[in-house]
Amino acid sequence: MFEKVLVANRGEIAIRIFRTLRELGIGSVAVYSEVDRTAPFVDFADEAYLIGPGPATESYLKGDVIIETALRAGAQAIHPGYGFLAENAGFARACADAGIVFIGPSPSAIDAMGSKIEARALMHTAGVPIVPGVTEPVDTVDDARHIAEQIGYPVAVKAAAGGGGKGFRVALTADELADAFEGARRESEKFFADSVVYLERYLPHPRHVEIQILADTQGNCIWLGDRDCSVQRRHQKLVEETPSPVVSDALRARMGEASVRAARAVDYVSAGTLEYLVSGEEFFFLEMNTRIQVEHTVTEMVVGIDLIREQICIAAGAPMSLSQDQVQPRGHAFECRINAEDATKRFLPSPALITAYREPTGPGIRVDSGVRAGTQIAEIYDPMVAKLIVWDVDRESARRRMLRALDEYVVEGPATLIPFHKWLFENEEFIAGGACHDALAIFAETPTQLPVSERTVLGGAAPGAPESGGHVVREFVAEVDGRRFGVRLHVPADQIGTASGPVQKKKSTKKSGSGTHVRAQGQPTEAVSTPMQGTVLRVLVTEGQEVAAGDVLCIVEAMKMENEVTAHRPGVVKELSVVEGQSVDADQVIAIVA
Q1: Does the residue 115 lie in any domain?
Q2: Same domain, 256 and 143
Q3: Distances (CA, A) of 565 to 168, 339, 531, 562, 591
Q4: FRET pair for 278, CA 20 to 30 Å: which of 370, 391, 411, 535?
């Protein structure tokens, strides 16, 4: 077994891995950027080393620096977690060249499954169903039009190196294909340094179901049940559960057997996930994630296994701890991603300082977090604050337990998805096992207030803190005839008085085309401002250019999400005050359109 392992990641997943290392009696090494100097995960490790500035390209993606740090610390292995270098075959090879064990699959397996195009061809050969489409790169819009006519609309344009919803665009008609093609290429180049895309038939509203597999160096390969990840916004997951409420036992078994065939086709070793699109009793290969998944937690809850422990032991040459006939899932588990985002404002990121923090506790509740009171949610990293996981004997019991846990969860400072999750877990469609595609599309595309109820405003913030719904909670206690009564008032934020009078609204939000226009108080009506803090990724207009209402002026990236800032009125761009690569604050004026 290893004596010391370096974790090449940050936040909650780093702490998650450190905990297992501690239980195994293995020393742990953290690496951190300048922005993460005071982050909780740094304190959790036995040793910690600074590896560079805040941007991931200068720290967490510097494979050579991380390997040098591992050698300096005397670590025999590196666990990459998820994201960053977790699916980087070049990094896995560099680890091997340096005599360090990469805790994950072989570079050849990562390569084979890393390209969506090559993976589709491999799966077809292995007898795993694939979505109708092409298995080779598509180079031009004209080529894409020809292919789309053959497979039929709607079509999905997808990055060959994509994942996490990046480099994924849908064209419902031929008129939308050019924009989808160029958008997918641009996003793929930015996030994966690879502009290769391909086309496949788009399946409207399928279920997104995945199978967890585990394989060791002794030739054993098993599957550990399914996870339903269909509740998504912009193709990014919000809630996961196991087992899927729409998958029959027979279909689940077929998917599991196909997943084992898929893993054996690339000589896979370690934990991995096969993702499928499910429609009725049919399933189609989507992709393979050659790493531990964010949502691995729900599988652990129902199977009773530590997947990180299995990964570490397999990497050390040991066989996995269980066989296929020992896999007996029990009960039901949910995971809610507690992101620093405001669902009422199209899930805009909300980087801010956490001023108060309290996690729920009790039977069947697990919180994987990487924050505490005083933690700054930085706009340059993923917006996840924590993962809230619950287990109970069946789906309805687990759903009710999740609501109780959400009620207890307090995060003050940034807006979070806690109120959204409360609404979702009481939504009739979700209760019936639905994925709420239409409702989530509305939230993702248009500023939408959550219905105000006792549950949606309970918890999530300390009393007196503003809520995402624009209200402030005021709590009072009254005693009448010896009985205590708690009084909770939900007052609109703009009606809360101060010594100098009512608080004024800071900004108003309007929907314009596919983006959001924000004008802060005191700005001229011709001003167009950014709705969030971030970095200007692209500027699509020039001074003097005529624009129509809804035209995209620039694209601002915040917390790994692209956000379009659009013109709120027709006119001419009189002033343009930003350039590509520039950092901007919320409500900062980027242009004058008059």
Answers
A1: no
A2: no
A3: 20, 22, 8, 10, 10
A4: 391
Paired tokens of 249: 């036992």
47 vs 2, 64, 76, 313, CA distance in Å?
Answer: 16, 19, 14, 21
The helix (run of H) or strand (run of E) holding residue 419 is: helix 418-425
Q: What pLDDT is recorded for position 358?
A: 97
pLDDT tens readout for residues 225-267: 999 999 999 889 999 999 999 999 999 999 999 999 999 999 9
Q: Of 59, 84, 103, which marks where a domain is finished?
A: 103
Sign of CA dihedral 79, 81, 84, 85: positive
Q: What local confidence, expressed as pLDDT, does residue 252 receive?
A: 98
| Together in a domain, 451 and 539 | no
Helix (H) or strand (E) holding 510: strand 507-512
CA 556 to chain centre: 18
* 518 and 495 co-located in one domain: no
In which residue ranges of the chain is pLDDT below 50? 497-521
| Residue 491 shares a structural domain with residue 436 | no
Let me know whether 182 and 295 are in one domain. Answer: no
Kindly report the backbone phi and psi dihedral angles of residue 345, in degrees, each rounded to the nearest multiple of 5, phi listed first. -120, 50
Residue 140 burial by CB count (10 A; 0-12/13-18/19+): exposed, middle or buried? exposed
Candidates 17, 78, 106, 86; CA nearest to 289 is: 86
Are residues 238 and 301 both part of a single domain? yes
Q: Are residues 336 and 325 in the same domain?
A: no
- Which of 11, 4, 91 shows the shortest CA–CA distance to 43? 11
d(CA 543, CA 571): 11
pLDDT at residue number 459: 55
Range of the domain at 315: 207-330
Residue type, 317: G
The per-residue DSSP string of 44-93 comes to HSSEEEEEE-SSGGGTTT-HHHHHHHHHHHT-SEEE--SSTTTT-HHHHH
- 11-24 vs 307-315: helix crossing angle, rounded to 10: 60
Phi, psi of 148 (to 5 degrees): -60, -35
Work out whether strand 282-289 and strand 332-339 pair parallel, antiparallel, or are unpaired. Answer: unpaired
Does residue 226 sit in the same domain as residue 321?
yes
DSSP for residue 152: -
CA pair distance 388, 394, nearest whole angstrom: 17
CATH of the domain at 285: 3.30.470.20
As a whole number of Å, the CA-based R_g of the chain is 24
